[in-house]
Design brief:
Layout lengths: L4 E3 L5 H13 L2 H21 L16 H27 L8 E4 L3 E5 L4 E5 L5 E4 L3 E5 L5 E5 L5 H14 L3
Antiparallel strand pairs: 1-2, 2-3, 3-4, 5-6, 6-7
Helix pairs in contact: 1-3, 2-3
């Protein structure tokens, strides 16, 4: 491995969306809610189009809540996250600056035109590799990420070796 791994990220909204959605849908609570929302939506659609006869179980029509809840869970929550991330991305001045991320044996150093932040390795609880990014977890509620597309092949190999050598789970 070289002394330092220097990457110059070009921040894009799609990286933030991938990170947010992967965090959201990785929790079991959200997966269970999505599962039941899909089941509920399928049952309601089958009932509405007379493919399913559930009149023997209930005497009334299906309440409107049974139709609205799946739509909220499946469509409005992801839409809300999209617009919230888009707004946060557009308002974050650090993302518009030319910046460098310097990774070495000391930690991760982010340098921009108006800021510099060094985070030593001992502050990270875990570093996990995902399909499109690395998640750098500092606490239960504080996570950062580095998109894999910012690395070239050699830098990616060096970064993986560095993670193994500093022994962060």
């Amino acid at each position: 491995m070289k002394e330092q791994i220097i990457i110059e990220p070009k921040h894009e909204l799609k990286d933030f969306l991938r990170f947010s959605y992967s965090n959201l849908y990785s929790s079991w609570g959200m997966r269970i809610m999505i599962f039941f929302s899909i089941i509920g939506l399928i049952i309601n659609i089958l009932y509405l189009f007379n493919f399913l006869d559930i009149d023997m179980f209930i005497d009334e029509k299906i309440p409107i809540v049974n139709i609205i809840f799946p739509f909220i869970a499946l469509f409005f929550i992801p839409l809300f996250i999209f617009f919230a991330n888009k707004s946060a991305f557009n308002k974050n001045f650090r993302l518009k600056e030319i910046s460098k991320i310097i990774i070495d044996n000391e930690g991760v150093n982010e340098k921009g035109e108006s800021y510099e932040v060094l985070t030593p390795w001992k502050k990270f609880k875990s570093i996990k590799e995902k399909k499109y990014h690395f998640i750098l977890k500092q606490s239960k509620y504080q996570k950062g990420f580095i998109a894999k597309r910012h690395f070239d092949d050699q830098q990616l190999t060096d970064f993986k070796q560095l993670i193994k050598s500093i022994n962060i789970n």
